[in-house]
Each structure stands twice: as C-alpha cells, then as structure tokens.
Predict the 3D structure of the following.
Amino acid sequence: MPASKSTISPELAIAVVGLYSAYSNEEMSSQEDFALESILSKISQFEDYTDDQFSDLSDKALGFIEEEGVEEAYKQAIKSLPNKSYKEAAMLAALAVIAVDGDVPEEEEEFLVQLQESLKISDERFDEILDDFFDDED
C-alpha cells in the first residue's frame, strides 16, 4: 500500500524519473546508476552537488521508489516537476540511463515517447533534446 501522496522535491523527482527509466528494461545496472549521476552533475539544478549529496539523492530516490512502488513513485515524480527546466532535466536523466549501453531498444523508445507526453514536451523540443544529447555523446 503506497504511503503518502505528498509532493517531493523537484531534484528528487528528476532522480526518480531517471531511476524509473532503468526499470523500463526491468533491471538497473551499475552502469545505469553511474550514468544518472554523471548526467545529473551536468544539469544546472545539480551543479553544486557533492559526491555525497548525489549518493544521498540516489538513496532517497531508491527508498522513495521502494516505499511508494515503482509506478506510484513515477507518477508523483512527474507531478512534482514545477517547470520546463525541471521537466527537460528529467528527460535528460532518463535519456542518460537508457542510452548508457549504446542501445535504445524499442520498449525504451516507447517509454521515452510516453515520458515526453507526460512531461508535455513538444515534438520539436524533444527532437532538439535528443540531438543535443547524442551530439554530446559523440
């Protein structure tokens, strides 16, 4: 039974979305966990975070997912993103985790499209985010 329906911090919400994306292939690898921390460190909302703060954030996100259940935690995370900047940061976090192994299977592509819709990111902006993300990966 889910615990609370309270709003979580936008930073925790971004981490939850990133971790949730790892579950799109039903398991999270250490490579995906590292990718999440790596991309978060490049997002303005996290630029002053220390390694310990990233570790704490990851622990809180995992604990929140465990407490609420994967689906409920994801729904609450989406609702807790206050503006375009945070929503795009959540998309980047999900992309980093999904693309870490260099392969984006069809089920993960479908998840990204669903995430795009949930975050209300336009097709044009979504394409820009993808282009920028994969250009940075090269």
